[in-house]
Protein 1
Amino acid sequence: MSAVDYSIAGWVRRVPSLQWARDDAARAATPDALPEVLLASRPLAEVHRLDLALFEVFEEAALRVSGALVRRAPTPEALAFSAQQTLDEARHHEQFRARHLLARAAAGLPAHGGTAAILIPPLQRFLDHCYEVADAGSFVEALALMNLVLEGMAFPLYAYEQRYWAPVDPALAALVKGAFADETRHCAFGARTVRELLASDPERRARVTKLAREARSAMAEVFRYYVARFVGLFDAVARRHRELFAGAELAPGRLIADTPYEEQVRMIHHSIDTEHARLLAKAGLT
Ligand SMILES: [Fe+2]
Ligand SMILES: [Fe+2]
């Protein structure tokens, strides 16, 4: 297996100076202000705010868990990786939260209280479990829950989110694109780190495999809920604003307008299942 560059020096060379500079340049080309259509269409603005609230919840959880992992990292490589991830998540949280607050202000809503409606009890239970495991100092277990289960199941959705929002809010689509690149890295590096840390301990690997399997079925319930809800909401607003979504794609070459609701839901779950199975195999958790 080739060596993975977990160093902060390597990360600073590649991520902030190249990837983020590119992302920031792309974002500078899209106006930050909310597009007119979001100010004019109440149903579209509601879906937009709800989705931003969900991004804010996920990114805050990722930030809190990554931060806790820094304290308990067992190797210098794991320490550097947790620190990098913490900075990435802080950036995502700040960016999504800023857009969410902008959308709330445009609707005359107070800054606080935007996330409660979207944080369903099974997700809250999963997040509490992540915090408990991370705070108890079980580094590899908490890393598996965060990077391989929560992010591992969520990151395939970022590609769909990016395509859904592209015609409505290009600035949000650009944010999602940037975060997607980081999340892909967190999942891949997380899988390598878990595999390396468990390489010489088959008993612990079996325990982490069981933990990841149980967490996956708990999160499958959460994702079934969010996918059904958001695809339903997007479908309804896309029907209401046919011209706006006329060219919007669900997958490359596949128009949302030509894809029935059930087919959209099926395609998204298929992406989650295949990408996630691939990630667990990469981590040696099979
Ligand atoms: Fe993130
Ligand atoms: Fe992440």
Protein 2
Amino acid sequence: MPANPLSELSPAWCRECGAEVERDALDCPACAAPRPSQTDWAGEGFEYRSTREFRGWPLVHIAFGIDRSGRIRTAKGIVAVGQRAVGGVAVGILALGFISCGVISAGVVSFGIVAVALAVACGVNAIAPVALGVVAVGFAVGGLHPIGWKVILSGAADLR
Ligand SMILES: [Zn+2]
């Protein structure tokens, strides 16, 4: 394959910090920005933000992937969906919201593999005043391994 001498010899500079970088570098060696030689690189993934807002929060914010500085995008909105979601209703791998649903979720009402809530949690591991889960820890609990003051549902008959 014939090499292109121009692309090898012409220098490139990092869009974020100005350091000289390889034209095809994946990361800036100085500041770790992704694709440093691409001036118009806008990140990877997908982002949608509704124009309607409520108290400065978009009604809907959906964010996946990384932004142009290489950080993982966080969805923040009344309804937030993303790897990291923060909002009224949050859905994500990490979810924090009034109602949250995620692999790891925290909120007033939470659903997830690990769900921690101020009111009701439902998940594989659920920790809340009212907790339903395989492992449930709380005040009123239900599950295969309920740990709490009042067991409302139990998968194992010999437990409290
Ligand atoms: Zn840089």
